[in-house]
Amino acid sequence: MAPPVYDTISVRSLEFQGRHGATADERKTLRRFQLDIDVHGNFAAAVASDRLDEAVDYYALCALALELGTGRTFHLIEALAGAIVGAVVARWPGVGVTVEVRKLNPPCPGNPACSAVRLHRPPLS
């Protein structure tokens, strides 16, 4: 049996401001976030047809992620990443998704550039 074909559509370094954080103080002010999204699947139909309606539209992908990142508040970036993964799979059933959410300049000892979480869900066979 041949392994499945997985093509990838990627969005890199999508930036937004949101009120996400474990503490009430963090959620009082806007903080900067950045995310990467990879959508995995077999995109042969889009390759052959050259039609947007057969593809994962990266404009719609960005809009979906920004809506969740700016329109809701999460205590954990894990929950934000999970909401994005769930929304992508609901919009494009059968695809796999990898989402990395980075909180830029988090309030942590040592002044890290970011803290991040990466969630991966494989495509459905």
Quick tags:
alpha+beta; elongated; 125 residues; four-stranded antiparallel β-sheet; GTP Cyclohydrolase I, domain 2; 32% strand; 4 helices
Descriptive account of the structure:
The chain has 125 residues and is α+β, with helices and mostly antiparallel strands. It has one domain (7-121): GTP cyclohydrolase I, C-terminal domain/NADPH-dependent 7-cyano-7-deazaguanine reductase, N-terminal domain (GTP Cyclohydrolase I, domain 2). The chain is 32% helix and 32% strand. It is built from four helices and four strands; from the N terminus they run βαβαααββ. It has a four-stranded antiparallel sheet, covered by helices on one side. Helix 3 (58-71) packs antiparallel against helix 4. The chain is elongated. The model has no long low-confidence stretch (mean pLDDT 94).
Residues in β-strands, percent: 25-35%
Question: So, the CATH homologous superfamily?
Answer: GTP cyclohydrolase I, C-terminal domain/NADPH-dependent 7-cyano-7-deazaguanine reductase, N-terminal domain
| Major sheet | 4 strands, antiparallel
**Strand order within the widest beta sheet:** 1-2-3-4
Short description:
This protein has 4 helices and 4 strands. By secondary structure, the protein is an alpha+beta fold. The protein has one domain (7-121): 2-Layer Sandwich (GTP Cyclohydrolase I, domain 2).
Describe the SSE topology.
Elements: E1 7-18, H1 24-28, E2 31-41, H2 44-49, H3 58-71, H4 77-91, E3 96-104, E4 114-121
